[in-house]
UniProtKB/TrEMBL annotation, chain A:
Protein name as catalogued: Phosphate transport system permease protein
Single GO BP term: phosphate ion transport
GO CC terms of this entry: plasma membrane
Species for this entry: Nitrosomonas oligotropha
Coiled coil region boundaries: none
Encoding gene, per UniProt annotation: pstC
Domain called ABC transmembrane type-1: residue spans: 87-299
UniProt lineage: Bacteria, Pseudomonadati, Pseudomonadota, Betaproteobacteria, Nitrosomonadales
Compartments, as annotated in UniProt: Cell inner membrane; Cell membrane
The keyword Cell membrane is assigned to this record: yes
Membrane spanning stretches: 30-51, 91-112, 133-155, 161-178, 207-226, 276-298
Main location (coarse class): membrane
Amino acid sequence: MAEESRTKITHAGKLGYSFRRHMHERFIETFLFLSALLSIAIMLAIIVMLVKESLVFFQHVSIWQFVTDTQWTPLFDDAHYGIMPLVSGTIVSSLIALLVALPLGTIIAIYLSEFAPFTVREMAKPFLELLGGVPTVVYGYFALLFVTPLLQIIFPELPGFNLLSAGLVMGIMIIPYVSSMTEDAMRAVPMNLREGSYAMGATRFQTAIRVVMPAAFSGIAAAYILGISRAVGETMVVAIAAGMQPNLTWNPMEPAATITAYIVQVSLGDLPHGSIGYQTIFAAGLTLLLITLLFNIIGHVLRKRYREIY
Amino acid sequence: MKSVNNLEEIRKIIGLHKKWDLIFMITGIIALMIAVLTFMALFAHMLIDGMPRLSWEFFTSFPSRRPESAGILSAWVGTTLVMLVTAFAAVPLGIGSGVYLEEYAPKNLLTEIIEINVTNLAGVPSIIYGLLALGLFVYQLGFGQSILAAGLALALLILPVVIVATREAIRSIPVSIREGAYALGATKWQTVSDHLLPYSSAGILTGIIIGLARAIGETAPIITIGALTFIAFLPPSPVKSEFPYVSFEWLTAPFTVMPIQMFNWVSRPEEAFQLNAAAAGLVLVVMTLAMNGLAIYLRYRMRKNIKW
């Protein structure tokens, strides 16, 4: 009798234990699942927030005016809402940055991956990583107070705020991102491809350019795309060194505001929530997001299309 | 006769190709030097300008209209508190998300969407996170221009960094560890919490440190939520003398952070303030370099010590 009840109890206990254990597992899995879903929630929240405020903005301003007007003076009495001046500033500063970052980043990556001795690589990689960790506001300070005076020695007529110095410093800033991703892509190319190339009598340079780089193309494309998004979305360097005056120009020697610098300028002021000035930064932000998303999609297509499988 | 001629030609071609090798090698070293020298120039310039301003008073004074008595007290206190919020939000969510994607997620469309989305989030400009925080945290949820809103904005920003670091650290643990745990009757979560997380802790920590180092230097999102640039008081203390000893009033307090303080000083025309900016920049750079250096060291040790 006693025996029987005891087995019963342990049986029930086991069931209860198993049940609790099961519930515990399910509870944790749910928490983990929700935290994974959060990333989608963030993306949706970004899009909803930007589109919602922009829609209100576009009730006041037609999209046609937004795209074609050549002046951006939303805070003046004579308000114009043409995004072009901000876009031109963004394009010019990004182009300069990319002209610096893509060639230098690629050369450094090829050198580190294919040429450099082990010790050089072990020293250079952490150093580049540190370079990428320097806060952008510090780079802005450097552009305004070191690079611009330096450039003014060469071009005496260069104004204190200009796109050139902001773009150059931004380029240096982006080098680590481009070089480290490009190098990772090149190092992922299997050794036997290189060995095959060397066996055919190719030199290191030929192997790097004609065998390794094409094989790593999808990874290199991803690195370039990331560099472009960084340049387009970079804020503090341009806000500090390129000035905050919207200026429709393609001349890097002039001061001009970028999309991001405009957002900073408005945020520094005291615009009431819900005013049209408040909504302009969301419209500007939406433009910025669309540009970076466009590049991300291009990168995704390139990666899919040219992915090499070994 | 002809073959000798050929050999010489071939040698010439090889010599030419070898020359290109050399030229490229020199180009590579020059490119690397440009990066190194720029960094040196940046650091030296800041050191020369900012070093004389660095003193005990600089850390214990509030910003002021007189540059020589201005300090970064409210800025570094603000940065510390904002980082606290960021770490508290980003670490559990980032690790949770990474663990789910690596260990739990079934192979389906939703998982793939989440994975692509994490990559996309990493490419979204930081100022966009600022706009999100402005609309959502500051106005919709009513947090105001507070430490809480800023900390959460930066948490969203570094979430992808923590997720990716967690995934990579967990992925490098061999399957045999999991199989061993399951064979002894461990549940999935027991396997994760008793084995996978401890073994990958160094890798995850590295990711967290890199993420926080990035968050410390981020200026744009915090400016966007409307943080004030001139704060001459401290947020209410988190520790109290009477029960319950801790207070969360500081979460809703106005604040400023190091990079904003520096930005404020840089954008003033007086040179004396720009010296202050150099000093603040020096503190900021040393902080981020120390954190990144710690991360690099951790990774180096990890690579050396772990042999599965």
